[in-house]
Each structure stands twice: as structure tokens, then as C-alpha cells.
Amino acid sequence: QAAEVPLTPKEECRRSYAVAGYSNYLNQCQVCTGTKQGGLDSCQGDSGGPLACPLPDGRYYLCGITSWGVGCARPDFYGVYTLVSCYSDWVKSILYASVSAKRVNQTSVEGNH
């Protein structure tokens, strides 16, 4: 399933969660989506799923990963996503390390024949 949800200003999201006692739960590597009225949201079981954001040319890119929220689509509680951009250097380092390891192993195997 898919839903089109607006990004929510960080301060609005913080205020909403602070009222419910979650004032220190949002950090700079998170973004919120949804509306104050509720109705559209990710839910339990969606964690790890994608938040796709549009590019000017009509394509989409992975900008967030479903993280947490309070209930599902409840008024005043937005969906919280982890920003992929905060971890892109780490992801690249893991990918490059994996590629480098495969090259080293291939070289070793080829050299032993």
C-alpha cells in the first residue's frame, strides 16, 4: 500500500509529541509526515519501509525509513522517519568495504590457481 503524506515542519512535530511527554525523542536525523487531523500514516509492521520523496523530473528517491509514531494515523501524532541522508556516508562505507573485500578475495583465488 502507498499513501501520499505531506512533510510536517519539525517544530510542529516536536510540539505535538512534547505535549504527550515525548519531548526528547526527535533528533536532527528524523523527519515527520502527516497532518494534524490524522488519517494518513504508517503503522505497526511498516517499520523499515520507505519514505519516497519526489524529484523535479518526476522520479522518486529514498529520503526516509519508517521509524516510529504513536498509534496509527491519530490526530496530533505524526509518523516519524529516519533521514537516509544522515547515514549515506556510513552506507557508502559499508558498500565500498564489501566491494573491496570481494575484489581482494577474487584476486587471492585467481592467484592460487
Automatic annotation (TrEMBL):
One of its GO terms (biological process) is proteolysis. The keyword Protease applies. Belongs to the peptidase S1 family. CLIP subfamily. The gene is LOC113468724. The keyword Zinc does not apply. Keywords: Disulfide bond, Hydrolase, Protease, Serine protease. One of its GO terms (cellular component) is extracellular space. The lineage of its organism: Eukaryota, Metazoa, Ecdysozoa, Arthropoda, Hexapoda. Residues 1-96 form the Peptidase S1 domain. This is Prostasin-like. GO terms for molecular function: serine-type endopeptidase activity. Gene3D superfamilies: Trypsin-like serine proteases.
